[in-house]
Amino acid sequence: MSFTRRGVLGGVLSSVATGVMAEAPFTSMRPRARIVPTADLGTIIRRARLSGDVGCVLADLESGEVLQEVAPDLRLPPASVTKAVTALYALETLGPAHRFATRLLATGPLVNGVLDGDLILAGGGDPNLVTDQLATLADRLKDTGLSTVNGDFLVWDDALVNLDEIDPSQLDHLGYNPTITGLNLNFNRVYFEWKRSGDDYTTVLDARSENFKPQVTSARMAVVNRASPVFTYRGREGVDEWTVARRALNNGGSRWLPVRNPARYAGEVFATFARSHGIVLAAPKEIADLPQISELAVFESRPLEQMMRGMLRFSTNITAEAAGLATSAAASGQRRGLRTSALSMARWAEQRAGARANFVDHSGLGDQSRISAADMVKFLSADGVRATLHPILKPVTLTDRSGDRLSEFPGEVRGKTGTLNFVSSLAGYVRAQSGRQLSFAFFAADLAAREAGKRAGDESPRGAVGWNRAAKRLQQDILQNWIRLL
């Protein structure tokens, strides 16, 4: 069932339908609702005047009873709500203590500070590796006593299947649509900074993190005179070559751009830190296979549980994709491409919780993924899921219609949001005013408007900001209604 600007169909809630609960929760999703009048939710949705489609489900966690539902079986893009599925998939398969390792390896002996062989920087799929941590790895290399490398400096990034980008339909310059490999740095983004200098601009591209910002040559920028587009990209001989339209630059500013050659990028940054210790390395060369090796130093990521908590809080796409790819590889015993890996996660979700979905990635960036509100609630309500997800889901701030925080509102929401242009989603757990524990899912999308925006090639198409703002307000109104009345 869909809701459009042309009005809302009468009798929108199917929660008045009768049904018989099966012994196991959520084998039937159509019991009778006895709590909230049907007019309440219909009024809220009509007031939002949101074009496109809306589907939502609210269920009691203890009994599995569905309390309210609107178009529960309508399959819409989940956007970043997908990451909640990815988090559980990774945690239950790899384990909460799993760590990704980035290693320095040698192909020959290290004698009296001289490595008679090649030095290899080998990625283990860590999606959260940053420049400061490569500096730490260089410190650990120095601690081995190494001073000279007689061979080559090699980089290996094939721990995961390499992806040029997550979603090919996105614009090239969007930092949240990066390349994914087994060796990732700074979320595979480079920092572009510009400043007006007379009639021209000075530009810098660097690999900054908290304490360091080494400049890089693996990405270049040219300011050019043209009307559009704002950015162009070309990869040539391992270098990311960008141009930016002069008219789009103000007196000074910055933004992150995606890195399309992560292995070279990470290799260049590591070589900078090695050189600061007197260890001069040749230009990095990529290799496809690891030769016979010995380990000189290693840097391990945070435990996976902490990584998933951060992913759900900041909605980092690269973290979701690397975790999903690593999980499907561990489950199957072989590396898998993105679509195959996402399909494996969808099959796992159905086996784990009876939730049917079609995922095209692990982050929700691709708008071809589909899941219904009913299936998302099935997933959230399955045995053991809340115990793992609830502690790492982000608290959802409840706000008034001016956007100000409601500091003393009688209830709590933890969930995962998802936002694309003309797509808005939210799913998670509610503690109502009565103390009742609930699970819910809300999906909304105007797919026709989204497709029109994509054809226009705009980063923020006309009408998208207002639509997404209205959708988030609708989420707030529905959540607050549930908390007060249940």
Count of separate DSSP helical elements: 11
The secondary structure category is alpha+beta
The helix content, as a percent range, equals 25-40%
Shape: globular
Radius of gyration: 25 Å
The strand count comes to 23
Largest sheet: 6 strands, antiparallel
Mean pLDDT: 90
Percent of residues in beta strands: 15-25%
In what order do the strands lie side by side in the largest sheet?
A: 2-1-23-22-21-20
What is the CA–CA distance across the termini?
Answer: 24 Å
Model regions low in confidence, pLDDT < 50 over at least 5 residues: 1-39
Description:
With 486 residues, the chain is of the alpha+beta class. The chain is 29% helix and 25% strand. The protein has 11 helices and 23 strands. It has a 6-stranded antiparallel sheet, sandwiched between helices. A hairpin with a 5-residue loop joins strand 22 and strand 23 (437-445). Helix 1 runs antiparallel to helix 11 (464-485) and helix 6 crosses helix 7 (338-353). The radius of gyration is 25 Å and the shape is globular. The two termini are 24 Å apart. Residues 1-39 have low confidence and may be disordered.
Topology:
Elements: H1 38-48, E1 53-60, E2 66-70, E3 75-76, H2 82-94, E4 101-106, E5 110-111, E6 114-115, E7 119-122, H3 131-143, E8 148-149, E9 153-156, E10 189-197, E11 200-206, E12 219-224, E13 231-236, E14 239-245, E15 252-258, H4 262-276, E16 285-287, E17 294-300, H5 304-314, H6 317-332, H7 338-353, E18 357-358, E19 370-372, H8 373-381, H9 385-389, E20 394-395, E21 412-420, E22 423-431, E23 437-445, H10 447-456, H11 464-485
Parallel strand pairs: 6-8, 7-9, 9-16, 12-14
Antiparallel strand pairs: 1-2, 1-23, 3-19, 4-7, 4-17, 5-6, 10-11, 10-15, 13-14, 18-19, 20-21, 21-22, 22-23
